[in-house]
TrEMBL record:
[2Fe-2S] cluster binds at C271, C276, C279, C309. This is Carnitine monooxygenase reductase subunit. The lineage of its organism: Bacteria, Pseudomonadati, Pseudomonadota, Gammaproteobacteria, Pseudomonadales. Binds 1 2Fe-2S cluster. It is an enzyme of class 1 (oxidoreductase). Its cofactor is [2Fe-2S] cluster; FMN. Keywords: 2Fe-2S, Flavoprotein, FMN, Iron, Iron-sulfur, Metal-binding, NAD, NADP, Oxidoreductase. InterPro entries: 2Fe-2S_ferredoxin-like_sf, 2Fe-2S_ferredoxin-type, 2Fe2S_fd_BS, Beta-grasp_dom_sf, Carnitine_monoox_B, DmmA-like_N, FAD-bd_FR_type, FNR_nucleotide-bd. Gene3D superfamilies: 3.10.20.30, Nucleotide-binding domain of ferredoxin-NADP reductase (FNR) module (3.40.50.80), Translation factors (2.40.30.10). It catalyses: (R)-carnitine + NADPH + O2 + H(+) = (3R)-3-hydroxy-4-oxobutanoate + trimethylamine + NADP(+) + H2O; (R)-carnitine + NADH + O2 + H(+) = (3R)-3-hydroxy-4-oxobutanoate + trimethylamine + NAD(+) + H2O.
Length: 347
């Protein structure tokens, strides 16, 4: 799969330190035109390049959907960083120009809900920051329950406490002894409630477990993982059969990351978390160690395809039927100008 959507050049107009580890970036078009519309829960892909290494990360839009004069994203510095968060924190500043995708949404609100229960953990607050103004504008019934280790780990805690949604927000800081009981909270909700959760794996798994105990219909429980599944397993050799190109995929690096860092080709992947299915790729030889949430158990056992954003080889060699094209030859168009979609322009 090669990238088919056009990328948008944007300039960083504001950089804010929300906490010691979280920065918020405000992005606007180069000519002042409005950016594409989006709904709460959307994210964009940001492309970055540092030397020969290239990164593409997905970041939730944290600005209000009704204001497309700019977008805002929040980036938490990861330790250790796989490259993207360190680049955003250390290299990107006011005046930098980035390339982003149009918004994609895998975590939209369900309009059938009578009540919306939002559950966030740590940096998992980010997709809810665009949900909140959308819910308020619709005069919907909603509540946000936000858990973190302490104020430093609770990005946007002060803004939420003092902002227009304060009456709908509830906080649980472990540093002060406050604990969130998921089963008790979810069991106290009115009928017709839809539950949305984003945060650490433990929190998401806890919500899903509580939903099973409470026998909630699966269509009423929505979740988004804000980090990729760990790229576990040892180093292996990857071959792209159509080109005959081979590369080593190190431990701790996904196939998608290895391809991007080698500057080999552009790959469609809207989520980078193993949930959307856009990077599904046929397996020609070898077997995959599946870490995605998209393929069924039967499809995983059949070993005919895999999601290369999170899954890896079960062995020392894997051959994929991935269309290959040099990234340097790929172009995108923006208002009549051809642009290289892999370069991050820094001023």
């Amino acid at each position: 799969m090669t990238v088919t959507e056009k990328l948008i050049p944007v300039q960083v107009t504001v950089v804010e330190c929300i906490t010691a580890s979280i920065k918020r970036f405000t992005l606007a078009t180069l000519d002042g035109r409005a950016l594409p519309t989006f709904a709460g829960g959307s994210h964009v892909l940001v492309q970055m390049q540092q030397g020969i290494q290239r990164f593409t990360n997905a970041y939730s839009l944290v600005s209000a959907p009704d204001d497309t004069r700019h977008y805002q994203i929040a980036v938490q510095r990861e330790e250790p960083s796989r490259g993207g968060s360190a680049f955003m924190h250390e290299q990107v500043r006011v005046g930098s120009t980035l390339l982003i995708s149009a918004p994609n949404n895998l975590f939209a609100l369900d309009r059938r809900a009578d009540h919306h229960l939002l559950i966030a953990g740590g940096i998992g607050i980010t997709p809810f920051l665009s949900h909140l103004p959308e819910l308020a504008a619709a005069k919907a019934s909603y509540a946000l329950h936000y858990a973190a280790r302490g104020e430093e780990q609770a990005g946007f805690y002060a803004e939420l406490q003092d902002g227009p949604h304060a009456a709908h927000c509830h906080f649980y800081l472990a540093s002060t002894g406050q604990r969130l009981s998921l089963q008790q909270l979810m069991g106290a909700q009115p009928s017709g409630t839809h539950v949305y959760v984003c945060g650490p794996r433990r929190l998401i798994d806890g919500v899903l477990a509580a939903a099973r105990v409470l026998e909630l219909d699966s269509h009423r429980v929505h979740y988004e993982r804000f980090a990729q599944a760990p790229a576990s397993g040892g180093e292996f050799t990857l071959e792209l059969r159509r080109s005959g190109h081979r590369l080593q995929v190190p431990e701790g690096v996904s196939i998608l990351q290895a391809i991007e860092r080698a500057n080999l080709t552009q790959v469609d992947c809207l989520c980078r978390e193993g949930v959307c299915g856009t990077c599904e790729t046929p397996i020609l030889e070898g077997e995959a160690e599946h870490h995605d949430q998209y393929l069924s158990a039967e499809e995983k056992a059949a070993q005919r395809s895999m999601l290369i954003c999170v899954s890896r080889a079960r062995g020392s060699r894997l051959v994929l039927d991935l269309r290959w094209s040099r990234a340097e030859g790929a172009v995108c168009e923006y208002q009549g100008r051809l642009l290289d979609p892999v370069i991050v322009y820094l001023t």
